[in-house]
Write a structure and sequence with these properties.
The complex is a heterodimer of chains A (160) and B (286).
Chain A (H helix, E strand, L loop, with lengths): L3 E7 L2 E7 L5 H8 L18 E4 L2 E4 L12 E3 L12 H8 L9 H14 L5 H7 L11 H15 L4
Parallel strand pairs in A: 1-5
Antiparallel strand pairs in A: 1-2, 3-4, 3-5
Helix pairs in contact in A: 2-5
Chain B lengths: L1 E4 L3 H10 L3 E4 L5 H8 L5 E4 L9 E4 L2 E5 L4 H5 L2 H6 L1 H8 L4 H4 L4 H7 L6 H7 L3 E6 L2 E6 L4 E3 L2 E2 L6 E7 L6 E8 L10 E9 L5 E9 L6 E2 L1 H7 L6 H14 L10 H22 L5
Parallel strand pairs in B: 1-3, 2-3
Antiparallel strand pairs in B: 4-5, 5-10, 6-7, 6-10, 8-9, 11-12, 12-13, 13-14
Helix pairs in contact in B: 5-8, 9-10, 10-11
Classes of the chains: A alpha+beta (160), B alpha+beta (286).
The structure holds flavin-adenine dinucleotide (FAD) and FE2/S2 (inorganic) cluster (2 copies).
Chain lengths: 160, 286
């Protein structure tokens, strides 16, 4: 099978890779680009563990082909913290102890950051609906929701 | 499997018509799941997303034309569209999670042929018209004329939908869509209804369309349910008659998510509730 050559941007860097026609973006990120932050929970769009941004949109990378990102901009969880600072969403997830096994966490970080960029002051209901496609087996969700609301407050410069 | 990006719609038609087992991909939220679950890939996957204009939403003759590769998220962000056809937009926005919305298209939802596809009852109620590009050129067909059965449509080999036209909404009219699912998010409709109502100057229903989803092999338009609403302000008798007409039109499956009896009952409830929402959106007083 002949491989497809793809040029794209990942976390701001120009990246080129070869992939099989049926290979998902998730597999490309993990197995070819060594970006293992995005996880495969289901491979069928249900769990959100593989969430990344594609051209500014939150998507499930298991439902995107590597070949489809030619000329696009992909942002993954690896691009969110700077060398010395966590993003407020990451910091608040830690502070609220909103993770246990942590498999869902990269997807939650990417998804929650996308929400707060679109809506700086979401209601609890808005956070819950936005994150409905991010499943978590461990926490019971409540701490995740509190952490995201708290991060939103911090980013707006008010204390929750 | 080969993956090919179609440069334009003629190119896509040629690729789809050329060999056996070529399949279009829009958002891929059905195609990639089906490939994964079945372990079978089409011979050629023809990506439609780079066809010029296929991701545009444009006003046309007072109506609105939605390109076949516009995502659900993009539809939800378009105010003109939401104002004119709120029911169609709310139906599309119910498809999957935020992540799925970032990719899934209304046309993919239609072409996948699921009896429970959320956008289809709303498209029927809105009398939407699909623009099809095929071996013999372009043609316009009402969405109603494309429905065939579970997992099937009347699209022929090489046919693709390039856009859907939502016609100009009549004065004092509005649409609405509701579905019942056992959870609050991320589930498939057990029964659903799309309703489009037009009121006269006195606030009485002058024209109506009622469509049901998930209760027959395809979404269905229920003329008797619409007739029950015409000439009324949705009084109790009209609502009851509408619900009964819906129940008569049901021929649902029986499964763990909903028995035949339950789906039938809920279809009528969804239709009458959606009718009340459409009525109020159109300016009617309940
Ligand atoms: C987690 C999850 C949740 C979901 N929830 C829902 C839900 O709540 N309600 C619901 O209705 N659906 C749901 N779906 C199903 C799916 O997301 C929708 O049907 C979606 O609208 C499909 O659009 P797409 O662009 O991704 O289609 P694709 O997967 O790209 O295509 C779907 C089918 O249509 C064909 N096709 C696509 N575009 C065209 C075209 N322009 N011309 C001709 N044929 C075409 C393809 O070949 C394929 O057979 C869900 C899916 C997932 C993974
Ligand atoms: S792995 Fe992609 S949604 Fe579960
Ligand atoms: S912390 Fe384990 S799945 Fe969320």
């Amino acid at each position: 099978m002949s491989k497809i050559h793809v040029s794209t941007y990942v976390n701001g860097d120009a990246v080129e890779f070869l992939c099989e026609p049926g290979e998902t973006l998730l597999d490309v990120l993990r197995d070819r680009l060594n970006l293992t932050g995005a996880k495969e929970g289901c491979g069928t769009g249900d769990c959100g563990a593989c969430s990344v941004m594609l051209d500014g949109r939150l998507v499930a990378s298991c439902l995107v082909l590597g070949a489809e990102v030619e000329g696009s901009a992909v942002e993954t969880v690896e691009g969110i913290a700077t060398d010395d600072a966590l993003h407020p969403v990451q910091k608040k997830l830690l502070e609220h102890a909103a993770l246990q096994c942590g498999i869902c966490t990269p997807g939650i970080v990417v998804a929650a950051k996308a929400l707060l960029e679109k809506n700086a002051d979401p209601s609890e209901e808005e956070v819950r609906y936005w994150l409905a496609g991010n499943l978590c087996r461990c926490t019971g969700y409540d701490k995740i929701i509190r952490a995201v609301l708290d991060a939103a407050a911090e980013m707006r410069g008010v204390s929750a | 499997m080969r993956y090919i990006v179609a440069k334009n719609s003629r190119d896509a038609v040629a690729l789809l018509g050329a060999g056996d087992g070529a399949q279009p991909i829009a958002g891929g939220t059905d195609v990639l799941v089906q490939m994964k679950l079945s372990g079978v890939a089409p011979s050629v996957l023809v990506d439609l997303k780079k066809i010029p204009g296929i991701r545009d939403i444009v006003l046309e003759d007072g109506g609105i034309r939605i390109g076949a590769c516009v995502s659900g998220a993009e539809m939800g962000e378009n105010d003109a569209l939401k104002n004119m056809w709120p029911g169609v937009v709310e139906a599309v926005e119910l498809i999957g999670s935020t992540q799925v919305q970032g990719r899934a298209t209304m046309v993919g939802n239609l072409c996948n042929g699921s009896p429970a596809a959320d956008s289809v009852p709303a498209l029927l109620a809105a009398e939407a018209i699909a623009r099809i590009e095929g071996q013999d050129g372009q043609r316009d067909i009402p969405v109603f004329g494309l429905l065939e059965g579970p997992g099937r449509t009347k699209l022929g080999k090489g046919d693709l939908i390039t856009s859907v036209l939502l016609p100009k909404a009549a004065k004092n009219s509005a649409d609405a869509y509701l579905r019942f699912i056992p959870r609050t998010e991320m589930d498939i409709a057990v029964a659903s209804a799309g309703v489009n109502l037009q009121l006269d100057e006195a606030g009485v229903v002058a024209a109506a369309k009622v469509a049901l989803g998930a209760v027959a092999p395809t979404a269905v338009l229920v003329e008797d349910a619409a007739a029950a609403l015409i000439g009324t302000r949705l009084d109790e008798a009209a609502v009851k008659q509408c619900a009964e007409a819906c129940e008569k039109a049901c021929n649902p499956i029986d499964d763990k998510r909903g028995t035949i009896e339950f789906r039938t009952k809920v279809a009528g409830v969804m239709a009458t509730r959606a009718a009340k929402i459409a009525f109020q959106r159109a300016g009617g007083l309940l």
